[in-house]
Specification:
Layout: E1 2-6, H1 13-24, E2 27-30, H2 31-40, H3 44-54, H4 61-73, E3 81-84, H5 90-102, E4 109-114, H6 117-125, E5 127-130, E6 136-138, E7 157-158, H7 165-179, H8 182-188, E8 192-196, H9 201-214
Parallel strand pairs: 1-3, 1-4, 2-3, 4-8
Antiparallel strand pairs: 5-6, 5-7
The structure holds adenosine-5'-diphosphate and zinc ion.
Length: 215
């Protein structure tokens, strides 16, 4: 089972991808997480990526495509995978088609999670992540502030640098101009399924699972 989770920043791709990865025992590949890990380890990729990510800009296509080619070609992906955050441009979508063909990977199920922009801005402004277990929380929904310990593991919570309001505006702009057009690529192939991303986490995962069942 190969799934692409698609949608604007803040629609809940990461949260839903973790749920699906557990449910189907397949690998969750988050390009954002891969880049943040590279930043933490201060690799050359991480240093280059940080400057771009902090401004809400995309990391160049050739770098991201190489990274995904290596990951999908490795052993870990033979049982299936969920792509979260890739493809983000038309060029990435075309390259992904070629990678799937080269590696004999079956056509993906593409689930587009749809949330309106006002809601996205409100969610990102209070998205907190646990430093220890990586769980994503929403300040309002989970009744938390940045000073509270993680309800799961007591780790400390932080806000991502790119969730600051100025950066969020730019990420949404980049989404509109560079990423949203990727929907047409999968729509033309009859692979795109759009689900309503409003409501709570379990309502949304119910809709995502329904969309996958129909596929
Ligand atoms: P979100 O979905 O909330 O925007 P991500 O964690 O998926 O967050 O991505 C964070 C940042 O990482 C992006 O704003 C971008 O700079 C970079 N990034 C992630 N995936 C890609 C990609 N496929 N192509 C280019 N840049 C990417
Ligand atoms: Zn935690």
């Amino acid at each position: 089972m190969n799934i692409i989770l698609f949608g604007a920043p803040g629609v809940g791709k990461g949260t839903q991808a973790k749920i699906l990865a557990d449910a189907f025992s397949i690998l969750h590949i988050s390009t954002g997480d891969v880049l943040r890990e590279a930043i933490k380890n201060q690799t050359p990729l991480g240093i280059q990526a940080k400057a771009l990510m902090d401004k809400g800009m995309l990391v160049p296509d050739n770098i991201m495509i190489g990274l995904i080619r290596d990951l999908l070609g490795s052993e870990c992906c033979t049982k299936g995978f969920i792509l979260d955050g890739f493809p983000r441009t038309a060029a990435q979508a075309e390259a992904l088609d070629r990678i799937f063909a080269e590696l004999h990977i079956a056509a993906p199920e593409v689930v587009n999670i749809d949330v309106d922009e006002k809601e996205i801005i409100s969610r990102l402004s209070q998205r907190y992540v646990c430093r220890r277990c990586g769980t994503i929380f929403n300040g309002e929904v989970d009744h938390l502030t940045l000073n509270d310990p993680c309800p799961r593991c007591s780790g400390t919570l932080y806000q991502r640098d790119d969730d600051r309001p100025e950066t969020v505006q730019h990420r949404l702009e980049v989404y509109r101009t560079s990423t949203a057009p990727v929907k047409a690529h999968y729509e033309a192939k009859g692979l795109l399924r759009t689900v309503d991303g409003s409501g709570n986490v379990s309502q949304i995962s119910g809709r995502v699972l329904d969309a996958l069942k129909k596929a």
